[in-house]
Amino acid sequence: MKLKLSLLSFVLMALTCHTFAQQAHDLIIKDVNILSMRDSNLLIKRSVLIQKGKIVRIDDFKNLRPAKGVKVISAEGKFLMPGLAEMHSHFPAEGQVDTLLLENVAAGVTHIRIMNSGTSQVAIRERLKKSPDLISPKLHYSQLIRKDIRYSVSQFDSLMMDMKKNGISFIKLLSLADEETFDNLMKSANKNKVTVCGHFPRAVSLEKVLNSGYKSIEHLAGYDGISDETQLEKMISLTKDKAVYNCPTLDWDLFSMNLQYPDDYKKRLTYASSPKQYRDKWEKEYAAEIEKKGKEKVLAGKEAGLAIFARKQQLLKKLSDKGCLLLAGSDAGNSFQMNGFNMHEEMWNWSLAGIGNFKILQSATVTPSMFFNEQDSWGTVEVGKSADLIILSKNPMKDIRHIRSVETTIIDGKVYFPATFH
Ligand SMILES: [Zn+2]
């Protein structure tokens, strides 16, 4: 269905008008096909009872005997799976945060790992606490470390103490001063049981990073400098043994190396369905950026960029084939990257790199819950888990692009219908 309305205004309208649960109602999702993500099996025509925001029973509908007042969503022929976890998100300046949150919910995102923010994360957290009706995925907050920080172990200890007080769950390393600071940071983090992840610290060797307790590496950096295949295999094995996660953010490479210039961006999965005012804005911004860089230079650099990108695709495939832990994150925020919906784009990028649909879906659901050590509370469709779920009209195990058929997003049992525009 083609909509005359812009997607964004439609999304906002759909979310605000058709949200029927301001409080977590008891709910049954009836006769749905379930992709639990515990394994790749599809449970056919089951019903899911949700109470107080949690999945309490999965059974045939006739066995559930709904109490009066329980909302029933008929979902025959549709697909239920855990909501998506956007594992690499940058938050904008104040005033734009609510739109980002809404767009993520509309795209089926129920968890966000904040990797940087133009607004105080503590302020965001306080505001969400005070306004329970604000529509938002569940947020995982970070403490950023930049290269101007040269702390001793005890200084890092007190920083981590403060983080715990403020409900900040992990450290994102943006840039590193030197190797000594890395040693101090990891010593303190391991002692205080605080997760550290982020950019690859170029002052330190990949082998040392993999052995340090560093939990996730962004953008596949660190592996890119290894030209010797045996050494690369060794590092991939170490990545697997040490359970280090990788968050590839392939879409960021497409943008940063201008690989879709001059007009391949029009073929992007999400381009045509993005709001016109967004497309107009992006096109203007992108033209200005290319102008600044110089058209000739951009085109000349594209060939080398495509080779780098192909190498990254191969690396991702190798990590995946080895059984390494992967996190899907979109790094949205640049031209042609719509918040939330860019997760669909990133998942398609992985598919083009040869990653199987189950692995892609795991990397956007259950594997992120493991990253946060929260696999007992979310990330799969199982009894006892939070009802952070999406209902799709098409099966994403058949074609990963079907992830775009999100019809319903459920967070802690609250139900949103954002997606009749597909
Ligand atoms: Zn980033």
Automatic annotation (TrEMBL):
It comes from the Bacteria. Keywords: Hydrolase, Signal. Pfam families: Amidohydro_1. SUPFAM superfamilies: Composite domain of metallo-dependent hydrolases, Metallo-dependent hydrolases. Residues 79-415 form the Amidohydrolase-related domain. One of its GO terms (molecular function) is hydrolase activity, acting on carbon-nitrogen (but not peptide) bonds. Residues 1-21 form the signal peptide. This is Amidohydrolase family protein. It comes from Pedobacter steynii.
